[in-house]
Design brief:
alpha/beta; 20 strands; about 35% helix; globular
């Protein structure tokens, strides 16, 4: 029997799962020589959230990362995760954008494209698979594993056979939340291997503590390979340790052929690297068997915790985790993987924080219910559908069939800021932050978010995040609940004052002395009135203003959309609470906002 193939995830999914995708290219390159000599079947190093994190936080060109790693890893296959028609963004793209993206990715050095659709709607991966085959690269179809009354073994086998018929070179079981058990793994892999002519791989997160056993059962029952993470970035919401799985198969017919001592040296390197990113560690990335009930993937849990921390509502995490299965059932049991995990998770947060289910519904939920993400396998709640889209019918065609070609339009929009087709595609993935990135590159002002030292005070311990402060004879209880990304010379901090969420902006004294603070994009922050009147427009959760749909003096009716905000990468329309005239607007596009602020005044 051929040796077990190992795909190492430390350069993508492992750090995405444990440190919010923050590892920089400069920390990958020094170890590439050892990684290249290790003998892996593949190194997963691109796709997923890495593209977003590079542009949004690290201020790196993700295409440059791909090219550098390709050069540094000449003997190892590079692998990426592609969201089918969603590519690496959060919406469906036209077919010409999909083809261009795959072609440029292949040209820049990618070997294996793992392609999935969040809805397991295989119509949404066909164009991607065709494009990969046209580029003479390896197309690996991935089925998103989930559990529900309607997700059966026969269903997954049918999906896999459909992918094989499209021309996929291999098949991956993508267990993004760690839901598989050893027995189920054995049965599913056995069924797939017996029905398919292409090899089967297993990708399983260790969240529930079962992944190592699942991996062994998968190989015993005919799987060709497994995904692992080097030990210093393994376990919890990541993957089983590479070294442990190599040791487990040693001297058996499934021997991986990898050298344990060499892998240990790689592990020591990444152990030190991980310390640099301590600020991105989360208490919600350890082992948690609750995933077997709520099905929440690790990356989604960390997003939820950050959102709740920003408004001092972390105590409602359990309520949100309990709400997620209800929302998922009402939306027809979608698998919880990007972007459906964000769609379901954000709606659950809104339901809990609003104290009224579906009082606020995100734009993405509305698009989902219109069929714009694909066909839901289960029955959708008619009540939820009506609250979101009224009597509107859902489309029944492949969503991208309704999209006109976009590449030419995108090229015109971004203009001279794009120096290549890759730049146009960066803008296509993330129009706002992509354009900002390209502008900053053009202006030579790209500055990555800062990495904090291990100690944040001078006493050798951690700075306090909860304390009392007394001013003018009044004592206030302060809790620092989170911090935002720096805005030029200022940085937002989210705090609660006696339980009331607030946002403050901290600026250096040097910049204030220079007068630069008057030019900050958050000029309104801290100056907005509280939402105390019926006509005050506010938001349910902290977010960013994406668009303002009204002007002062305009007349609106109750229920008309007036502002669009973004939180957890999902957009929400904020509606007018009453009919009347817009008297004041207290926000600008791009500003951070928090609950209880009056963003717009209507009289």
């Amino acid at each position: 029997m051929s040796k077990t193939k190992i795909t190492e995830t430390v350069l993508r999914d492992a750090h995405q799962s444990l440190i919010a995708t923050r590892m920089r290219t400069e920390d990958m390159l020094p170890i590439c020589d050892r990684l290249d000599k290790a003998g892996y079947w593949a190194l997963e190093m691109w796709g997923g959230a890495t593209f977003d994190a590079c542009v949004r936080f690290l201020k790196e060109d993700p295409w440059e990362r791909l090219r550098k790693l390709r050069e540094a890893l000449p003997n190892t296959q590079l692998q990426m995760l592609l969201r089918g028609q969603n590519l690496l963004g959060y919406r469906h793209y036209s077919d010409d954008v999909v083809r261009a993206f795959v072609a440029r990715t292949a040209e820049n050095g990618m070997d294996i494209f793992r392609i999935f659709d969040a809805m397991n709607d295989t119509r949404n991966i066909r164009v991607s698979v065709d494009a990969v085959k046209k580029a003479n690269k390896h197309a690996q179809g991935a089925i998103c594993y989930t559990t529900s009354p309607i997700h059966t073994q026969a269903h997954f086998v049918a999906l896999a056979k459909d992918m094989e018929s499209m021309g996929c070179d291999s098949l991956a079981i993508k267990d993004m939340a760690g839901l598989l058990t050893p027995h189920t793994t054995a049965e599913l892999v056995k069924a797939l291997v017996s029905e398919l002519k292409i090899p089967v791989f297993l990708h399983c997160h260790a969240t529930a503590g079962l992944a190592s056993m699942c991996h062994y059962k998968a190989i015993e029952n005919g799987a060709a390979g497994i995904d692992t993470a080097i030990s210093s970035f393994s376990e919890g919401t990541s993957h089983p340790p590479t070294e442990s799985m190599v040791a487990a198969f040693k001297h058996t017919e499934y021997d991986t052929g990898l050298d344990l001592a060499s892998l240990q040296e790689i592990g020591f390197y990444f152990r030190e690297i991980r310390k640099k990113y301590h600020q991105f560690e989360s208490e919600f990335t350890g082992m948690d068997t609750r995933v077997q009930v709520n099905q929440v993937p690790g990356g989604m849990i960390s997003n939820l915790s950050n959102q709740l921390k920003e408004q001092g509502a972390l105590n409602k995490m359990n309520a949100v985790l309990n709400e997620i299965p209800h929302v998922r059932k009402e939306l027809g049991y979608p698998p919880l993987v990007t972007p459906t995990s964000q769609i379901v998770g954000t709606q659950a947060v809104l339901n809990v924080l609003s104290n009224e289910r579906y009082k606020t519904i995100t734009n993405e939920v509305k698009l989902y219910l219109q069929g714009k993400y694909g066909k839901a396998l289960g029955k959708i709640s008619p009540q939820v559908r009506h609250m979101a889209i009224g009597n509107e019918d859902a489309i029944d065609c492949r969503p991208a069939d309704l999209l006109p070609a976009e590449m030419e339009k995108l090229q015109k929009e971004i203009g001279s800021l794009a120096h290549s087709e890759e730049d146009v595609l960066t803008y296509a993935m993330f129009p706002d932050i992509g354009k900002e990135f390209l502008q900053q590159r053009n202006d030579h002002t790209l500055i990555p978010e800062p990495l904090e030292p291990a100690d944040t005070d001078t006493t050798g311990g951690k700075a306090a995040t909860e304390f009392n402060i007394t001013m003018h004879g009044e004592t206030y209880h302060i809790q620092i609940t989170g911090k935002g990304y720096p805005q030029q010379h200022a940085r937002p901090y989210y705090i609660s004052v006696d339980g009331v969420p607030e946002e403050v902006m901290l600026e250096s004294l040097e910049e204030i002395a220079l007068g630069d603070h008057d030019q900050q994009p958050h000029a309104h922050t801290g100056k907005r009135p509280r939402a105390t009147e019926p006509g005050h427009v506010t938001t349910t959760m902290p977010g960013i203003i994406v668009d303002i749909l009204v002007e002062v003096g305009a007349s609106v009716k109750a229920g008309d959309p007036v502002i669009i905000t973004e939180a957890m990468k999902m957009e929400t329309e904020i509606q007018a609470p009453i009919s009347g005239e817009i008297k004041a607007i207290h926000v600008l596009k791009g500003e951070s906002v928090t609950p209880d602020e009056a963003l717009i005044e209507i009289e």
